Amino acid sequence: MEQTKGGPDRRIGRRALIIGGAAAAVGTGALLARDELSRMWWQVPGVDKPRVEGAVDYTGARWVAASSANWRRADRPADYTVDMVIVHVTQGSFDSAVQVFQDPGHGAASHYIVRDDGHITQMIRELDVAYHAGNREYNERSVGIEHAGFVDRPQDFTDAMYAASARLTAGICARYGIPVDREHIIGHVEVPGTDHTDPGEHWDWDRYMRLVRRAGTGSTPA
Q1: Which residues cross the membrane (predicted)?
Q2: What's the structural domain count of the chain?
Q3: Phi first, then psi: what are they for 18, rounded to 5°?
Q4: Does residue 186 share a domain with residue 89?
């Protein structure tokens, strides 16, 4: 039977369109939910995200694990945006820093330690939250880099240390799209609520930022 304009066929068409649109919306929601579950499945109690033992995020770094009491598992940047690098000074030797970061009673550790000769040790994966900033929000959004030495000894901040740390920071910034500026690369002293003073007045920020930018562009540091 031929239907007139505005008759049953048109109503059926509208109904089909509405139902189809609703189904598409449900389908999209289901896909998003499935994607979320696939990303977060490892957070189910009793399930651990697969890890490669001894893996490092920075080529050339040596892996030495910090105590698990000094950091917590995460899936950054999927669960926390990483948009900051925080510069520390150990106020002690390289060996003593490694030792305290392995001490479960210490309660703190950074992702990396840079030695005066440019050697880099990684103790916590970048995807995990290190207890290094003394501020939960800043811990969740940052990568912490310790530098072996003392804030009142400018001679501890060697050319090799600056160059190695700058390459490390440039790589972190490239991985997470972090702007190379002093709003996103900061000292521990600049973290809200902290009582720390590192890296101190002898840390040459102008030089360091220049080296980070050059490392990011592949230029040879001067």
Answers
A1: 12-33
A2: 2
A3: -65, -45
A4: yes
Domain residues for 22? 8-43
Q: How far apart are CA 199 and CA 151, in angstroms?
A: 6
> DSSP state, 148?
S
What are the tens digits of pLDDT across the range 25-69?
445 455 544 555 445 544 554 455 677 889 999 999 999 999 999
Q: Are residues 168 and 132 in the same domain?
A: yes
- Looking at the fold, whether 101 and 162 belong to one and the same domain comes out as yes
Query: Side chain identity at 212, as an amino acid letter?
Result: V
Q: Which residue has the tokens 């109690």?
A: 45
H helices within the chain, ranges in order?
8-40, 94-101, 136-141, 159-176, 205-217
pLDDT in tens, 79-114: 999 999 999 999 999 999 999 999 999 999 999 999
pTM: 0.78
- Distance, in Å, from the CA atom of 56 to the CA atom of 216, rounded to the nearest integer, reads 19
Classify residue 83: in a domain, yes or no.
yes
Residues across the chain: 222
Nearest of 27, 29, 7, 9 to residue 19 by alpha carbon? 27
Q: What is the mean pLDDT of residues 121-137?
A: 97
